[in-house]
Amino acid sequence: MLQGRAGEKGEPGLKREEVIRIIREICGCGLKCRASPLELVFVVDSSESVGPENFKLVKDFVNAVIERLPVSRDAGRIGVVLYSHVDMVVVSLQQQLSQDDVKAAVRKMPYLGEGTFTGSAIHRANQLFQASRPGVRKVAVVLTDGHADARDFMQFEETAMEAHAEGIEMFVIGVANKTDPLYEEFQAQMDVIASDPDEEHVYLIDDFRMLPALESKILSRICEQDDTMAFLPNSVFPPMEIHPKAPEDSRSKEFPVEENIQLELPVETVTAPTPLPHEARRPDGNLLDTEPWNQLPDITPGSPGGPGAISVAGPQTLTDWLYEAESTEAPASALPPPLTHSALPDRGCSQPLDPGPCRQYVVRWYYDPEANACAQFWYGGCQGNANNFETEAGCKNSCVYT
Question: Are residues 147 and 195 in the same domain?
Fold first, then answer.
């Protein structure tokens, strides 16, 4: 049998890792992260411009990302900050909750529907990262659709700069229409908040329904990928057309839509909210807050004998929301007067927040010197320090200066 001449040696084929990467980029297939240490905090906008329906999409997106992360004490730890005109710690890094517990807390976050105090929310996230493990990567994902509110005492430029200085890698997902006359200003704000380079840390979309298309893109940036492919539907959203952006904008690309399977987790302890007297109903049944932006939600501590529950009565009807909450009211004046000699008579006012090592949680108050305000936290029941007050009035009388 005659054989022809041997041809020239061809180019080497793609490696397995390269094939997997290309498939992921094309199809947006389910990514699974390796169980490597990570401190991750979501900062979630719940302001008026978001709207109740879009807020549900935001919660679905956050849970879809959490579903892909290895959540454990030794691997990924998750924190969540919810904000509008107030900011609330839904989950802290120290709580060591399971993946299902974190997702359940996210699902039950209330829609606040007021201002966009992004600076205060980033400040709160910075505080959560103080409990980070040494040498572990710190990542924050800020999701917002509006300009930072000028009434916020904590300016977003300053708190974002503090985050960058502390080694926190900041990713930003901004939702805004390019036809908006203030779009360029909004994009500039997102660039300030995000880490450099912007093209790797800023994702701009014009519709909340496009969030599922960003899921794999975000995951590829924030975690080490497992080589195992998971071709599972990963979104509850139907396929939709995503309009490609201008080619010169590397942050705006056409992403495939994925599917997500949500798991329901029953909550054992539920405290029903007490409706506020200033609430009125819209025709569609939702609650409408008719008072100014600085109305705070009612927070009712649960039983001191267990982990407890906190109910928040806000602009949306709530029946069973369980979360760990901290709220901060914006000071009335942007420039507080200088401290006097007797401004901080209690020695605990200058001490950092310390929940203690025990787990018999009760709701207490602590003083935040940077915001000159008192906020709630979960006290473990033992040790800690003197920055621990049983009532808000006691905290204010001891620490807050006017």
Answer: yes
> How far apart, in whole angstroms, are the C-alpha atoms of residue 102 and residue 91?
7
Please report whether residue 14 resides in a domain: no
pTM of the model: 0.55
145/261 same-domain check: yes
Same domain, 186 and 308: yes
- Report the Cα–Cα distance between both ends of the chain, in Å, rounded: 100
| Whole-Å CA distances, 377 to 49, 260, 318, 364, 387 | 28, 33, 21, 6, 11
Instruction: Based on the fold, state whether residues 51 and 181 are members of the same structural domain.
Output: yes
Residue 188 has pLDDT above 50, yes or no: yes
Mean of per-residue pLDDT scores for the chain: 73
Is the CB of residue 63 less than 8 Å from the CB of residue 234? no
Rounded to whole angstroms, what are the CA distances from 320 to 30, 106, 216, 313, 351? 31, 12, 31, 11, 34
CB atoms within 10 A of CB 185: 11
**What is the amino acid identity at position 329?**
E
Full residue range of the structural domain in which residue 169 is found: 26-238+250-330
Q: In DSSP terms, which residues pair with 21 in a beta bridge?
A: none
Measured CA to CA, the distance from residue 149 to residue 234 in angstroms comes to 34
Q: Please check whether residue 131 lies inside any domain of the structure.
A: yes
- CA–CA gap between residue 69 and residue 152 (Å, rounded): 33
**pLDDT for 32:** 62
From 267, 302, 330, the end of a domain falls on 330
Is the pLDDT confidence value at 363 over 60? yes
Give the residue carrying structure tokens 């909210």.
273
Residues 256, 354: one domain?
Answer: no
300 vs 136, which has greater pLDDT? 136
281: β partners: 287
SS3 of residue 199 by DSSP: helix
Give the integer Cα–Cα distance in Å for 318 and 109.
9
Residue 326 pLDDT greater than 90, yes or no: no
Q: Residue 331 and residue 345: Cα distance in Å, rounded?
A: 20
Within this chain, do residues 397 and 325 fall inside the same structural domain, yes or no?
Answer: no
Are 215 and 28 in contact by the 8 Å Cβ rule? The answer is yes
DSSP codes joined into one string, 150-172: TT-SS-HHHHHHHHHHTTEEEEE
Whether 188 and 337 share a structural domain: no
> For residue 361, how many other CB atoms are within 10 A of its CB?
21
Please check whether residues 339 and 201 belong to one and the same domain: no
pLDDT tens per residue, range 376-393: 777 878 888 999 999 988
